[in-house]
Amino acid sequence: MVSIIIPAHEEEKYIGISIERLLSQSGTVFLKKDDKNALHSQSRLNSSGNSEYTGKVLCELTVVVTHGKDDTEGVVAKYREAGVNLISGNFSGVSEARNIGASASEGDVFLFLDADTLLNDGFIKRLDDFKNKSDFIGTSKLLPDINTLKARIFMFCNNIAHIITKTSMALIFCHRDVYKNVGGFDESMQAGEDLKFINLAVKNRFGRFKYLGDISAVTSMRRFEINGYFKTAIEWMGGYFFKPPEHYDVVR
User: What is the pTM of this model?
Assistant: First the structure.
C-alpha cells in the first residue's frame, strides 16, 4: 500500500486541488482509516475476482494541518468520506507534521507531498512497483505550474540538479523501513530537513536514491515568482554546500 502524507499550513487555496488530483488517480483505491478489514486483506481481495479492489493499488491519504489564519482544515474535512485522514493541531513545523502523518500511516511506500503539488496520472501506480523493495528513497520529475520560458528552464535545470546531488523539491518517496531507520525528519530544523533526511538515508545505506523521470508532478512556482528565481537558487545552493537557513520564509 502507498501512504501519502501531506503537511499543510495555510494552504486553503491549494490543498483541495491537490486532494482532487490524488483521488482521481487511475487504478487506485483510497481506504478510510477505519477500514481495517480491507487494509489487512489485500491478497484475499485481489484473488476474489469480483472485488472492487482487484487489480487496484491500495492507498491511504493523511493530511496534517497546522492551525493557521485560513480554513485549510475545513477544506480537508470535506474529503473525509472519500478516504482522507485529517489530523490537525498546533504543530511546530513541517517536520513534525510529516512525522505525525508517518506515525499514523500503515503503507509500505511513503510519499511525502507538498500541499501545492499535483501528481500526474499514473504516479501512485508507479510507486506501488517498489512496495517489495525496502531500500529506496527518491524523487521524481517536476513540472512548473506556469508556462513561462523562465519557469520551464529553471525546472529543467532543477530536475538535473536533483539527479546529480540526490536532493528533492516538493515530494520525497521512500520505503517505510528507510523512514524508520533514518528516524524521521529532524524537527529542530526549520529548513533543509528534507536534504538531511535524504542524506542520512543514502550515507548510511538505508536506501538507494532513485530519480523517476517516467512519472511527474506539477508544483507551484509562487516562491520563485515572488522572491526571484536567481535569489532562491542561490539560497538553496548555500543551504546545500554550507548550512541550511535557520528560518524559512512562508510564501502564500
Answer: 0.91
